[in-house]
Amino acid sequence: MRLIGVTGGVGAGKSQVLSYIQKHYKCRIYLADEVAHLIKKKGEWCYFKLVELLGEEVLDSKTGQIDKKKMADMIFEDEDLLEKVNNIVHPGVRVYLEDRIREAREEKDVELMFIEAALLIEAGYKEVVDEMWYIYADEEVRRERLKKNRGYSDEKITQIMDAQLSEEEFRASCDFVIDNSKTLRNTYKQIKNKLEAFTWLEVKRNRN
């Protein structure tokens, strides 16, 4: 099994790339943001640690689950508290993913596993994955996507981009770059060329 980390700046189209891969290859895909949400659910290890840190006021009064907005309000502009939350969530995500990786290797039926997150490099996953992919798109393309698809303002987009790694830093830490600035057809061609050694499910189905 080949373990691949997928990263890139906001609006680069990481989800778009992974959606295509999910449909066409024998793979499993884990999005770090979704895993982080999962491990904060009631009864999970991170849930108890976060409630201990933030207090029961972070909980939804009806469900008892951690209220995402309440937690965001608590840590907004409080860098110390944000760091403490990250020190709980990030290790929890890593443990969860390491368990899934081990399971997939034992099953021996998964050819590719992808882990996606904007902060994969900063979180030290370069040492975990077999290779790191950088999903790139021109800044203007990313800005237009974020305005159209998410309704972000120019100010918000600039704020997010400034907080992320630069293009040079992404490229220096990654083994492969997919240029997702142009057409989807162009992007998919790059993926197929890169993964030509792995089973392409549509070809397999057609042969059967």
Task: Report on the architecture of this protein.
By secondary structure, this protein is of the alpha/beta class. It has 2 domains: 1-26 and 111-208, P-loop containing nucleotide triphosphate hydrolases (Rossmann fold); 33-107, P-loop containing nucleotide triphosphate hydrolases (Rossmann fold). The protein is 54% helix and 12% strand. Strands 2-3-1-4-5 form a 5-stranded parallel sheet, sandwiched between helices. The longest helix is centred in the middle third of the chain and has 29 residues, at 79-107. The two termini are 24 Å apart.
Question: Mind sketching the topology for me?
Answer:
Layout: E1 2-7, H1 14-24, E2 27-31, H2 32-38, H3 45-54, H4 68-75, H5 79-107, E3 112-116, E4 131-136, H6 139-150, H7 154-163, H8 167-173, E5 176-179, H9 184-194, H10 201-207
Parallel strand pairs: 1-3, 1-4, 2-3, 4-5
Helix pairs in contact: 3-5
Tag the structure with descriptive keywords.
10 helices; 5 strands; single chain; 208 residues; 2 domains; Rossmann fold; alpha/beta
CATH arch. level architecture of the largest domain? 3-Layer(aba) Sandwich
Individual helix count: 10
Main sheet overview: 5 strands, parallel
| Spatial strand arrangement across the major sheet | 2-3-1-4-5
CATH homologous superfamily caption of the largest domain: P-loop containing nucleotide triphosphate hydrolases
Number of domains: 2
**Main CATH class of the largest domain:** Alpha Beta
> How many β-strand runs?
5
Content of β-strand: 5-15%
Distance between the termini: 24 Å
Mean pLDDT level? 93
Oligomer: single chain
